[in-house]
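Teaching assistant's notes for section 4

Start the section by putting this record on the projector. Ask students to predict, before seeing the second block, whether ABC transporter ATP-binding protein will look compact or extended. Collect guesses on the board.
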Amino acid sequence: MTPPSLEVSGLAFAYPDGHQALFGVDLTVGRGERVALLGPNGAGKTTLVLHLNGILGGGVGSVRVAGLPVDRKHLAEIRRRVGIVFQDPDDQLFMPTVREDVAFGPAAAGLRGAELRARVAEALSRVGMEAFADRPPHHLSFGQRRRVAVATVLAMEPEILVLDEPSSNLDPASRRELADILRSLDVTVLMVTHDLPYALELCPRAVVLSDGVITADGTTQELLCDEELMRAHRLELPFGFDPRSVVVPGR
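Reveal the predicted structure now:
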């Protein structure tokens, strides 16, 4: 039986200053699912995400990716399988050209020659940026840089794509283009966002993390329609947006 993409069991974590960020998180995400991770600032979302590829560790409980435990022995493979796209693409783009940025991870993992070139070309094609391969990243628009940041992760052929506020600072056209790209990807997606309409559009399932624990897990539309839940966890819909009126297409 194929294991789920992600299994988090009883994960608790405190920072060195004593701040307890997670209090026993249980979360399972199946292969190919797109799940929105919602919650107020300070809920523990970033702490949870940083445990998924071993950036943080040392807490209580366990995290498994595609059946592999996130531990020192498996760290290189875990970091290949869990790709994190940070909120600011400039945190990920540092090479002279787009092509070199996308090639950096696979090259560091040992890919060379024609295989590396094919991997880079495929990743850029998946985000519609193949025509910009030789451009310096800092000459691109913010939306284009975000798409390149996604390509740098896709080039590693991840099991899970983790996106931190993917729609932030995007104009409407770039927002739409990124949504189309994310829908087309055949990977598991965990999307951390405060953009609740974007979560509804892209993620059939959502979980709410609040005060270090999962407080709700269900269809995104059901959770966004639960006014008491939304108020309790400081989740705000845009003025005039009614999730009940949105016809969520089959995925």
